[in-house]
Amino acid sequence: MHVRHLTVVDFRSYESAELPLELGVTTLVGLNGQGKTNLVEALGYLATLSSHRVATDAPLVRFGASQAVVRGAVVRDGRETMIELEITPGRANRARLNRSPLSRPRDVLGNLRTVLFAPEDLALVKGDPGERRRFLDELLVARQPRWSGVRSDYEKILKQRGALLKSAAPVLRRGGRRGARPAYAEVGDAATERESALHTLDVWDSHLAQVGSQLLYARLRLLRDLGPYLGKAYDEVSAGQSDARVAYKSSLREETAARIASGEVLEAEELQAEILASLAEVRGQEVERGVCLVGPHRDDVVLTLGELPAKGYASHGESWSFALGLKLAAFQLLRHDLGDDPVLVLDDVFAELDSGRRERLAAMIADCEQVIITAAVPADVPSELTGRTYAVSLGSVTESA
After folding, report:
1. Angle at 328 between CA 32 and CA 265, to 5 degrees
2. Residue 334 in 3-state DSSP?
3. Phi, psi values for residue 94, rounded to 5°
4. Residue 188 pLDDT
């Protein structure tokens, strides 16, 4: 798989730009702030419908413009597919595949797969759990696009259940936990109102357990499959300086969480029952706090080097190696699953690596079908990674001799 051509209109700093691409290595060279990352961000958006830099679409549209357009020609198995996205803040985005409109933008997912490593990915090691959950879920979607729908369903259920906990909290607090004797006798409308709220919460518990168990099961399988690739990638990047491992930290009941942390992949049916049981245990706390305390949205991925957690103990170089190892492991997993390579994007990465890590990374990616690199100066890129080079300056893109 490779991208033959990228077009952007009113995207970030670009009024318009055309970027021809080919197999092998393409390098975008330019000083910071000139627009290199904007181009690879556009490429990533075609693949994932999201940005690795911002959480909303508004910053992606050039100041003064009403919408942005990103278009890419993707070649796989000798067939070309044209992907086009219209990004309109405040309104639903629109997507076309081979010029034909799609009912949902997410229907383009799977036509282009990328693995992008950028300085922001250091947050995979040093950041909060949300960064690591997002990494897992985006890799799930890259493997099988249908997980995008499951993620969306779970987020909607979580939002509705959270709104219920907040709005019905005064009613639900009457009499404490379910089954407890109320501090005063509830009569008439008050008792009916509370029973109705409890019933509604039970319904949302069931929805959350059903969809959440699917997402959790998929994450556990993914982490099991990713682990061996991570160990090998980290060893190659760091020259075998330490043992890199991952484990899943669940918000379920202690005994179940321990089984999951040991690497056991529970079946979806058992996970669904465990989510319901865990929700029942913390219902009183949820009512008091007005938040959902159990489910995939509360989980984390624990990264360890040797016997110590990477977060807080790994050096800066080790943290870089771990984050890079995760992305290279994702690349190898997708290569194995799909039978061809995703597009590998390295955004301003080599400048952050010492000479040894640069050389080892260059050797690891030498056989990739398509690699796109950004760098402030050509000297940042190892000499063995040769190919087309483009100079990027103030939103213009020109091929270097």
Report:
1. 135
2. helix
3. -125, 150
4. 52
